[in-house]
Structure formats: structure tokens, C-alpha cells
Write a structure and sequence with these properties.
This protein starts with a helix and ends in a 5-residue tail after the last helix. The protein contains 13 helices and ten strands. Helices cover about 45% and strands about 10% of the residues. The protein has a five-stranded antiparallel sheet with strand order 3-2-9-8-7, sandwiched between helices. It has about 300 residues and is an alpha+beta fold. The radius of gyration is 17 Å and the shape is globular. The structure holds 6-diazenyl-5-OXO-L-norleucine. The site of 6-diazenyl-5-OXO-L-norleucine (DON) has 12 residues, from loops.
Amino acid sequence: MDYQLELQRAHEAARPVLATGRVADYIPALGAADPRAFGLALATVDGEVHGVGDWEARFSIQSISKLFTLALALATGEPVWHRVGREPSGTPFNSLVQLEAEHGIPRNPFINAGAVVVTDRLLSLTGDAAGAVREFLRAESGNPALDTDLAVAASEAEHGHRNAALAHFIASYGNLENPVEAVLGHYYAHCAIAASCRDLALAGLFLARHGLRGDGSRVLSRSDAKRVNAVLLTCGTYDAAGEFAYRVGLPGKSGVGGGILAVVPGRGTLCAWGPALDRAGNSVGAVAALDAFTTATGWSVF
Ligand code: DON
């Protein structure tokens, strides 16, 4: 397959939908993003990397970080599943409604409530949850300059009333091991990491390699890599996960910075970025580009 040509076609086909989305501004520092920015990258398990458009521009990875916090928390072999579920929520990513009925056990690790619990776990395990995510991303992408955007992290903290409410509510059920402020600090710091489509496509390859890192060492067991991909497919794009599976047919994780990282197990990864979002918080351009690429190439788990 001519990867570069297929990426170009998908990028071109998706471009018209960019005008239909809106840049997230509930975190004010994200509101300045250019809604016409648009990139698409592909990395293969054989070591090929291709990209089109703004694929090397850095953007706020936001909830894409939750894929890495989950993987790193599971990497230690310690279970997290007694503290967070693995069912789709059918509610927005920052919803509070299920937490009380479900006694402070978030529905899955990718909604904000679930990611707060996983960040808490990773903080207990490593002493530096955001640092663990940053170091993993740097190593796998080969980009030592990759880092948290401190202005975005501060903006999130300043406007983080909803996340603080979620975290305190979870703590009231005894489902946090560390102080709320510490957990939220690490949560904002990993969400506010800035990386490019290229960086993220490379960093996600361990899920396409069934748990193996770029240097051949194992970060996840084959079973856990399968499980993370399964939860990505069912929960990675929130209450639009059904639509994403229908259109793209791949495990994927979105972020309100406009990125989506998708995994093609055994073959590679795709990362698309366009800051204009739909109402579920997923990038309209990224979903359309991934849809166009997988429809044209048959790169899907189905
Ligand atoms: O906590 C938040 O709201 C953001 N740091 C992350 C949300 C997000 O990316 C949801 N993704 N679509």
C-alpha cells in the first residue's frame, strides 16, 4: 500500500468537515487553537512513519494521556479493576451522574472520574504519575523535548471545579489513596502534555505490538494489551464510542485538544489532529480522516 497517498487522500477528504466543529474553550488556554489546523500520521510496526498536513505540530494531548496512564498502571501487574470499571458510560466525559449510584467506582478509566482514579494509582506506584507518562512518551517517540505545557496545566487547574468535584466525591467513598490536590496536579500535568501526531503515533505503537515497546522490552502482557485495546474501542471516545467504532472500526482515544490516537493491532497506529470538536468532545476532522483512511484501506479490526 502507498501509505503516503492514502494519508493524503484521507486528509483531503476530511478537510471540509473542519468548519462544522468548535474548539474547546472550557479550558481557556485551549481556546486559542486554530480550527483549521489539521494533521494525520501513521506509524507501522515495521518502523515506517508517514504524515500529512500539520502532523509535526504540537498540540495538547488531553485525554489521550489516559491511555498511557492506564497502560503504565497495569504495567506493574497490580490490578486496578476493583477501583474502576470497564463499561461504556453513555454519558459525557466529565459527567458526575453515575458516581453516586455506583459508590464512587467510575464506569471506565477514560472518563475523567476513571482517569483520576488511575492517576491516583499510578502516583502511588511511581511517586510521579505525570513524570512516568512524560518519560514513556519521550522514550517511545524519540522526542526528548516533549513536555507539559505549564500554561495549559495552570488553566485547567484554575477552571477545574468539575474535576475537583469528581475527585472529592470519589475520595468520599475511600477510592483515592493520595490527597485530592496531589492527584489533580498530576492529572492536569499529564493532560497538558504537548505532542505531535508523529510523537503520539510512535508512542502508541506498543498497543499495535501486543505490549512490546520500541526497544523490544515488554510493558504490557499480550492479554493486557488486548484488554486496553478493547476498553479503548468501547470507551475511548465516550458517548460517541458506538459511532466511532461504526465509522472507524479501531480502538481509539480522543482528547479535547483535538487529537485521536487509533490502534491497528499487529499493523500500526494512526494519529489525527484537528482542534474543532463535535458535541461529544471528539475532533470532527480527526474522526472524518480516520473514517476515510480505514474505509479506503480496510485497516480495521473488523
Ligand atoms: O479534565 C479535562 O476535562 C481535560 N483535561 C481532558 C478532557 C478530554 O480530553 C476529554 N476528551 N475528549
